[in-house]
Amino acid sequence: MDASVGVNSVTISVEGMTCNSCVQTIEQQIGKVNGVHHIKVSLEEKHATIIYDSKLQTPKTLQEAIDDMGFDAVLHNPSPLPVLTDTVFLTVTTSLALPWDHIQSTLLKTRGVTDIKISPQQRTVVVTIIPSIVSASQIIELVPDLSLDIGTLEKNSGTCEDHSMAQASEVMLKMKVEGMTCHSCASTIEGKIGKLQGVQRIKVSLDNQEATIIYQPHLITVEEIKKQIEVVGFPAYVKKQPKHLKLGAVNVERLKNIPVKSPEGSQQRSPSYTNDLTAIFIIDGMHCKSCVSNIESALSTLQYVSSIIISLENRTAIVKYRASSTTPETLRKAIEAVSPEKYTVSIASEVESISNSLSSSSLQKIPLNIVAQPLTQETVINIDGMTCNSCVQSIEGVISKKTGVKSIRVSLENSNGTIEYDPLLTTPENLKEAIEDMGFDATLSADINESLGIISQPSLEMPLLPSINELNKKMTTVHNKEEQKTSSKCYIQVTGMTCASCVANIERNLRREEGIYSVLVALMAGKAEVRYNPTIIQPLLIAEFIRELGFGATVIETAEEGDGVLELVVRGMTCASCVHKIESTLTKRRGIFYCSVALATNKAHIKYDPEIIGPRDIIHTIESLGFEASLVKKDRSASHLDHKREIRQWRRSFLVSLFFCIPVMGLMIYMMVMDQHLATLHHNQNMSNEDMISVHSSMFLERQIMPGLSIMNLLSFLLCVPVQFFGGWHFYIQAYKALKHKTANMDVLIVLATTIAFAYSLVVLLVAMYERAKVNPITFFDTPPMLFVFIALGRWLEHIAKGKTSEALAKLISLQATEATIVTLNSENILLSEEQVDVELVQRGDIIKVVPGGKFPVDGRVIEGHSMVDESLITGEAMPVAKKPGSTVISGSINQNGSILIRATHVGADTTLSQIVRLVEEAQTSKAPIQQFADKLSGYFVPFIVFVSIVTLLVWIIIGFLNFEIVETYFPGYSRSISRTEAIIRFAFQASITVLCIACPCSLGLATPTAVMVGTGVGAQNGILIKGGEPLEMAHKVKVVVFDKTGTITHGTPVVSQVKVLVGCNRISRNKILAIVGTAESSSEHPLGAAVTKYCKQELDTETLGTCIDFQVVPGCGISCKVTNIEGLLHKNDWKIEENNIKNTSLIQIDASNEPSSTSSSMIIDAQLSNAVNTQQYKVLIGNREWMVRNGLIINNDVDESMTEHERKGRTAVLVAVDDELCGLIAIADTVKPEAELAVHILKSMGLEVVLMTGDNSKTARSIASQVGITKVFAEVLPSHKVAKVKQLQEEGKQVAMVGDGINDSPALAMANVGIAIGTGTDVAIEAADVVLIRNDLLDVVASIDLSRKTVKRIRINFVFALIYNLIGIPIAAGVFMPIGLVLQPWMGSAAMAASSVSVVLSSLFLKLYRKPTYENTELHTRSQIGQKSPSEISVHVGIDDISRNSPKLSLLDRIVNYSRASINSLLSDKRSLNSIVTSEPDKHSLLVGDFREDDDTTL
C-alpha cells in the first residue's frame, strides 16, 4: 500500500447550506466533475472532503466549482493530503465472456478505481484502488470472471506469509484523538478508519478521547492511520507503542494449518509451507515489557524469521522461521545475544516434536479437501428480551448475514443462540454486540471456554491437538500456581470518576494489561484495589495506566487499609489451652495474618485478607473447634457526636446561675431605687453627708447584724458563693485551658473579673468586720451571678444546635440493611439453599438475594434477574434505574419490582452508604466553629483592661502618698479610725476593681447572643429555621451559592409537559389516546407512568379509567398491554367536546390563518359525537424508540427529531402505539419551580455567584440552567464530588452556601460554610444543614442571606453600644475626671452596667421589624431585568473537572439570525398572550396546533 502521487484529499469549508438537499446537490454536482473520485459533505461540520486526481484537478478549481453553485467555499489549508492507494492483482479464471475493453470501462467508471493495467497474454488485470472507497471484493463482484490472485498479498507486503497468517499477525494500537465533542465524531472516525484495508477493528472512546485500532502492519502503517484520522479533522498522536496481539500455542498451530484455497482448485499447497517451521523457547531473565519488545525487535530484523510471539508471564517465545535458512540452535543463540545479554534460553523439547511433526511430508499426507476447510468454532450467547418468534427470526436473519457466521440457531425457550463462526473473521464479542445493537440484552455463556470447539471432519490434523492441549494445560497450571505464589495487592486513589461507566472503563482496561490478575474499583471511596504479579508490573505503572485513561491516580502507601479486621465474642473458653487452640488453628488458615484471643474478656481480634477468607468462614472455624463465636455488636448510632454531655453541663450551669441570680438582681434593683431616692432627698433638702449616712444605714438591708456586716452584704455573699463555684466551674476549666495555650479569650476575662470581684468583696467585708466599721463597705457580689447567667445560656443554646447535626448520621446509618439473604447456587445456577445473616458477615463474592421492596445490603453486581431500583439515595434523581445482569447496585438503594441475585463486590466499610456516612462525619467534625467576634475582641480587650486596672492601682497609691487630701475628699467610705496608708491602698484597690467590673464584658457578651436569638426567632416566624448563631453569622459572608437541581431548583417529580398527536383526528381523537394511555399506565409502578396517569385523569376530569389486561413491563424499554372499557370516559366528555371544538375553531382562525381550513380542521376537531357504545379492545405499546423498533414499528424522521429536541431540553420523550400504529408522543419532565428564576436573579443582584451542581446528565442540567439564568453548571457529580467541589471553592477563599434536599447532598451541606436544606427534602439533609427552609420556597434562600446580613449589622451596632459605654466608663472609674468633680460612685457603676445591657437588648429587638422579600413585591421590581440564558452562555463541567464543555461560539451571522428569531418569538408570544385572552383555556389544545409550546420552553 502506498501514498500515490496522483491521488490527494482536500477539505473545503462550505457556508450557506441549510438542509440535506443542499448536501445532496453539492455531492451530485462535484461528484460528476472529471477527476473527482469521492466527495463527502457534512452539514453539521459545514465542510466537504474531496478525494481527487491531482493530474486533473487542484484544490483551487474544486473550491471555485462549489462557489459557482451559490455556496461560500473557503480553503483553509491549500496543501492537500496524499491518499493511500492499493494495488489489486486479478486473474481470469474461466473462459472470458466479456471483452477486455468492456472490463476496463466498467472498472474505470467505478468510484475509487484510479488506474487499470490489462495484460491479455498473462490473463491478468492490475487495478489501483483507493481502499477507503472500494475494496477488492467489490471489484470482483463487478466482474465475476475475475478472481483475486494468490500472489497479491505476497507482492504487496513483501513477506512470504500466507493470507491467514497475515491475518493472525495483528497489532493493537492506541491513539489519543483530540477534538471529539459528540458520538457522531466517534462514529465518523470509526466509519472512515474501519474501511481502510489492513484495519481489522476500531473502537473510538469519546470519554477517554482515544481510539483502539487492531491492524495488519504489512498492509497499513501507523503513520497512515494517523494521517487518515487527521484527514477527518481530528488531531491524533500515538498513545501506546503498537503491540502484537498475543496468541497461544494452539492458536498459532491452528492458524498454520490453514493453507489458502488455491483459486484454480489445484492440488498444490501454498509454497510458504514447504520450509516454514515453528520452535518454542523458554526464556529466563525477562522482567518487564521492555525486555519483550527488545527481543521481538531484535529477532524480527532477521531475514529468516517470519513471526515471533513472546509471553512474559509464561516466559515463552514462539518463533516461526525458514527451516532452509536457520536452525533452532542459531535462534537460541540469537536471543541470548540480545542486549543486556542476561537471558537464559532453552528449547522446549515437547514443542520441538510438534514442529517436527509439521514437516512437509506429514502435511502432504493430509487430504487437501479436509485441510482446506475453513476453521469453525461454536459459541452460545444468552439472549434476554425476546418475546415471540418474530424476535427469533429477526435475530437469525440479521446475524446470519454477518461476515464469518456459518450458521445460527436461536431458541426462544432457552433464551439463547448457538452460532457457528470463523474465528479469523469474527469473535463472540462482536456477535454479542451485534445482537445488543438490535435492542436485546446479550451475554456470553459463562462456560464459553469449554463450549468452544473446533468443528471439522476427522482428519490427520486432530491427533496433533492433544499434545498441544497438554502443553497448554501444563502452562496454565504452572501459571495458576505462580499467581498464588507471586501475587501482590496494591491500593490506588483514583480521582475524576463520575459514574459507574468510569468504574467499568478502568476495570475493563486494567484487566487487559499483562500481569494484572484482578481489579476492584470503589466509586464513592475513589479507590482501586489491584492484585498483580510484581515480577511483571509495579503499582506506579498501574497508576500510570489509570492516568492514561484520563483519571487522576496515586498509589496509597499503607496497604493495610484493605485488610479486614474482625472483633469476635468467643464463649466456652476455660483455660489458656483453649486460647492457644483457637489462635494456632486460625493462624494456620490461609488469608489470616494475625489473631489474638483474650481469655479474660472472651474476645478475639483477627486481621485477615477479605479476598481469601471472610468473617463467616472464621466463625465456622471457631465453631468447629467446639466454641461459640459471634460478632461484637457495633453501636450503629452516632452517639459520639451528639454533644449530650456538653448540653447537660451547660444546662446545669445556667439553671444554677439563674436560680441564685434572680434574688441578687432583686436586691440590686432595690438598692439602686433606694440610693436614687436618697440622692433626690440630698439634693432637695440639702442634707449633710453625716445625715445621709445615718439615713442610709437605717434602711432594712443596710442594718448591721454585727459591726461591718450588713444584711445586704451577707445575702449577696450567700447567693454568690454557689454561682461562683458551681455555676462557674466550667468557665474556670476553659480559662485554665486557654491560658495554658497562651491565649486570652472571653472565658479568661469572665473568670478574672468575677474572681477578683468576689475575692476583693470578701476581703473588704472581712476587714470591715475585723475593724467593726460603722459604714458598710461597697461590695461587688452581684457581678458573678449576672455574668454567668447570660454566658451559660448562650453556650447551652449553641451546643443544642450542634447536637442536632449528629441526628443526621443516626438517620443515615438507619438506612443500612441489617440483614442479608445469602444463597448457595450449584454449577447450573440452581438455588440450593438460603440463609439469613447479619450484614457484617457478608463476604466479598457472596451471592445475595434481594426481594422486591428490599434494601440492597452491600454494593454488588447483578448476576440474575431484572428489576427497577430506586437509587435516589446516591444520585438524588427520582427516576428508578433499570438493572439487568452485569449492572452494579448500591447499598441502601431499594429494589422495586423484581427479585434479583447479586454478587457482593464491596462490603462493610467499603460500601457506598458507609462512605457517605464517613463523608458527613468528616464534614461535621472538621468544621471548625467560627470564632465569634467577641472572642477575637476579648483577646485584645482582656490584657488591656488588666493593664489599665493595674495602672489605676499604682497611680492612685502614688497620688495618695503625694497628696492625701484628694483621697480624703473623694473616698466615700473613709473613716478616721483607719490609718492613712490603709485608706490610700483601699481607695486605690476600689478604683482598680471598679475599672475591672465596669469593663466586665457583660454587654459585650450580650451583643451577639441577643441579636442571634431575635434573628433566629424572626427567621422561624418567616419559615426559616436557623440552627444557632454560627450559620446566622456566616451567611452574610457567603460569596457563592451552590444549588442542587432535583427537588431544589425543580419540583423533583416528573410532570407531563406536552402531548403530541401523530395521526389525524378522524382516525383517533386526542381524548381517546389519553384514555387509552392513562388506563395502560395505571398498572405501572414507574414514576413516569404515575405522571402520565395523573395527567390523563386531570385532562379527562375523571378518577376512574378503563380496564387493562395482559400487562407486561420490560425494564428500561416500556410496557405492552391490552385496554378495554374506555368508551364510558369518552361519552362522559361528549358535552365538553362540542365546547372544545368551538374554541379550537377560534384558535385556527387566529393562529393558522395561512393554512387550508380542511387540513386544519381535520387535525384539530377532537371527535365526532358518537352514540353507539361498543366495547373495543386496543393493543397498546408505550415506551422508548428501542421498544417500538423491537416491536416492528417504524419511527419516521419528524418524530425522531421531535424526540431528540425534547431530550435536548432534558425531557423524557415516550412514544405511544395503538393497534400497531404510532399515534402519540408524550414529553415528561421535572419542571422548574416558578420562583427559581427570580431567586437566582436576586442572588446575582446581591453580588453572589450562583452555581448549579447535579448528578443528572449534562443535557438536562444545561436546559434547567438556561431556564433559571444560571451560567455555571457541574453535571454528573457524585456526593463525594459535591463535597470536593465545595472544598475547592472554599480553598479559593470563598464562603460557600449549599442549597440541597437529598441524602446525596448531605455531605456537601455539612461541608459548606452554610448548608441550606429544603423543608420537603429528606430527614438526613435537613439534619445535616445549618438552615432549613420550611416553606419549600427558593426566595427563602434570599431571605436567609438577607436576614443574616441585617443580623450581623445589628450585632455590630450592639458592639458599638457596648464599647462606647466601656470607653467612657473606664476613664471615669479610674478617676481621670476627679478634678472636674466627675466621680463614679459604685451605684452609678451598677446603673451604667445595667443601662449598657438594656441598650444592647433593645437594639437587638429592632430586628423584630424585619420583613422578608416576597414573590409579589420582588417580581414587580425585577421582572423587567430578568432574561433566560442562551445555551451558549452556559458553561457545563462534567464531573469534578474544570474542563468545561462550552457551547460552540456563534459567528456574527448566527448571532444576528438568533436575535432576529428571538424578536420574532417575542412577537409571537405577545400574539399568543392576546389569544389566551380570547380563549380562556388554549394550552390544552395548542399542543395540536403548530406545536407552539415547544418554542416557549427555551427562548433563544
Short description:
The chain is of the alpha+beta class and 1500 residues long. It contains 54 helices and 54 strands.
Written account of the structure:
- The chain has 1500 residues and is an alpha+beta fold.
- It contains 54 helices and 54 strands.
- The strands form 11 sheets. Strands 40-52-51-50-41-48-49-53-54 form a 9-stranded mixed beta sheet, with helices on both faces. Strands 1, 2, 3, 4, 5, 6, 7 and 8 form an 8-stranded antiparallel beta sheet that branches.
- Helix 12 (349-357) packs antiparallel against helix 18, helix 27 packs antiparallel against helix 28 and helix 27 (746-771) packs antiparallel against helix 33.
- The longest helix is centred in the middle third of the chain and has 42 residues, at 644-685.
- The relative contact order is 0.05.
What's the structural blueprint in terms of helices and strands?
Elements: E1 2-15, H1 20-31, E2 36-42, E3 47-53, H2 59-68, E4 72-74, E5 81-92, H3 100-109, E6 113-119, E7 124-129, H4 136-142, E8 146-148, H5 151-157, H6 163-168, E9 171-177, H7 183-194, E10 199-205, E11 210-215, H8 222-232, E12 236-244, H9 249-256, E13 276-284, H10 289-300, E14 305-311, E15 316-322, H11 328-336, E16 344-347, H12 349-357, H13 360-364, H14 368-371, E17 377-384, H15 389-400, E18 405-411, E19 416-421, H16 428-437, E20 441-444, H17 448-451, H18 464-486, E21 488-495, H19 500-512, E22 516-522, E23 527-532, H20 539-548, E24 552-556, E25 564-571, H21 576-588, E26 592-598, E27 603-608, H22 615-624, E28 628-631, H23 644-685, H24 689-698, E29 704-706, E30 709-710, H25 711-727, H26 729-740, H27 746-771, H28 783-814, E31 819-825, E32 831-838, E33 847-850, E34 859-864, E35 867-870, H29 872-875, E36 881-883, E37 888-889, E38 894-895, E39 900-906, H30 912-926, H31 933-962, H32 964-970, H33 980-998, H34 1002-1021, E40 1024-1026, H35 1029-1034, E41 1040-1044, H36 1045-1049, E42 1050-1061, H37 1070-1081, H38 1087-1100, ...
Parallel strand pairs: 41-48, 41-50, 48-49, 49-53, 50-51, 51-52
Antiparallel strand pairs: 1-3, 1-4, 1-5, 2-3, 5-7, 5-8, 6-7, 9-11, 9-12, 10-11, 13-15, 13-16, 14-15, 17-19, 17-20, 18-19, 21-23, 21-24, 22-23, 25-27, 25-28, 26-27, 29-30, 31-32, 31-33, 33-39, 34-37, 34-39, 35-36, 35-38, 40-52, 42-47, 43-44, 44-45, 45-46, 46-47, 53-54
